[in-house]
């Protein structure tokens, strides 16, 4: 396991700040659960979209350069930083708990299941999209350099 360097930490911090701002902006655009009948649409959206984007990013990075040079930096900035700040497991868990405590068990279970299933499907679609962005032949050509 490699040790993080100060530049790595700075890249993650900058990405995390951008992702957190994007999540906050999405919440403002879509509205809070209180504005949406108690359903956390914004949290569902950011988590599913984040799963798609992370799937695509991981696939592109793996096909283009793995953990070397600029691809490592791209993964740290966009994956760990931006998408780590954009997605939110803690708010997902909190929203689910709030719905359960309000006695909205069906909605809570539906939300929890929808987030997990849609996130898994989105991640798979993101991987397929990543394969389209970085075809296998391109990965081999870059490895040969």
TrEMBL record:
Keyword Ion transport: yes
Residues binding Na(+), per UniProt: 84, 87
Transmembrane segments: 38-62, 74-93, 105-128
Stored InterPro entries: FluC (IPR003691)
UniProt note on regulation of activity: Na(+) is not transported, but it plays an essential structural role and its presence is essential for fluoride channel function.
Membrane topology summary: Multi-pass membrane protein
Reaction(s) the record says it catalyses: fluoride(in) = fluoride(out)
UniProt keyword list: Cell membrane, Ion channel, Ion transport, Membrane, Metal-binding, Sodium, Transmembrane, Transmembrane helix, Transport
Subcellular localization: Cell membrane
PANTHER family to which the protein is assigned, alphabetical: FLUORIDE EXPORT PROTEIN 1-RELATED
Similarity comment: family membership: Belongs to the fluoride channel Fluc/FEX (TC 1.A.43) family.
Function description: Fluoride-specific ion channel. Important for reducing fluoride concentration in the cell, thus reducing its toxicity.
Name used for this protein in its record: Fluoride-specific ion channel FluC
């Amino acid at each position: 396991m490699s040790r993080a360097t100060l530049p790595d930490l700075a890249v993650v911090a900058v990405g995390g700040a951008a992702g957190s701002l994007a999540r906050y902006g999405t919440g403002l655009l879509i509205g809070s659960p209180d504005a949406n009948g108690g359903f956390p649409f914004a949290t569902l959206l950011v988590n599913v979209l984040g799963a798609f984007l992370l799937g695509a990013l991981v696939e592109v990075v793996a096909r283009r350069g793995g953990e070397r040079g600029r691809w490592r930096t791209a993964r740290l900035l966009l994956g760990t930083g931006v998408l780590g700040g954009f997605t939110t497991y803690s708010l997902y868990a909190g929203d689910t708990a709030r719905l359960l405590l309000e006695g909205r068990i069906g909605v809570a279970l539906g939300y929890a299941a929808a987030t997990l299933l849609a996130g898994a499907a989105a991640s798979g679609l993101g991987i397929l999209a990543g394969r389209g962005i970085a075809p296998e032949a391109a990965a081999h050509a870059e490895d040969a350099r």
